[in-house]
Amino acid sequence: MGIPNGPLGLDEIDQRMLEALARNARISLKELAEAAGLSSPSAAERLRRLEERGIISAFTVDIAPETIGYPLQAIVRIRPLPGQLHVVERIIQETPEFIECDKVTGDDCFIGRLVVRSMGELDGILDKITERAETNTSMIKATPVKRRLPPLSR
């Protein structure tokens, strides 16, 4: 085993495994072992430990929303009206077009990412929220940086 690096004790082998998984979560164990310079049983054990430690919480797919009928994406900043925080949070959670949402500090309480089929659909979703919150919406033109791993070493 390599020398732990950082607060989570990730060594270079762990980092190589995480980078390979970030590129392709469906990579075979054999390919993952090769990327890390390990045998398949050693790679499987390391993978298990990364999961147990909570470093890996899921294996997932990245779907391009436009390919399944959602050509538009928007970022919505939401500031609930007094006494409406929990109601607004529930509306967001129950609206499947919100594919991501963070509760934040600052002037807004939530920043959400929506996928929609049309501007009319966006208006319908926002109408449910604007009865209980102020919103500010920005349409996404492009995503120059997709979700990625944070730096794994210093």
Automatic annotation (TrEMBL):
Keywords: DNA-binding, Transcription, Transcription regulation. GO terms for cellular component: cytosol. One of its GO terms (biological process) is response to amino acid. Gene3D superfamilies: 3.30.70.920, Winged helix-like DNA-binding domain superfamily/Winged helix DNA-binding domain. InterPro entries: ArsR-like_HTH (IPR011991), AsnC-type_HTH_dom (IPR000485), Dimeric_a/b-barrel (IPR011008), Tscrpt_reg_AsnC-like (IPR019888), Tscrpt_reg_AsnC/Lrp_C (IPR019887), WH-like_DNA-bd_sf (IPR036388), WH_DNA-bd_sf (IPR036390). Residues 10-71 form the HTH asnC-type domain. GO terms for molecular function: sequence-specific DNA binding. This is Lrp/AsnC family transcriptional regulator, leucine-responsive regulatory protein. It comes from Rhizobium miluonense. The lineage of its organism: Bacteria, Pseudomonadati, Pseudomonadota, Alphaproteobacteria, Hyphomicrobiales.
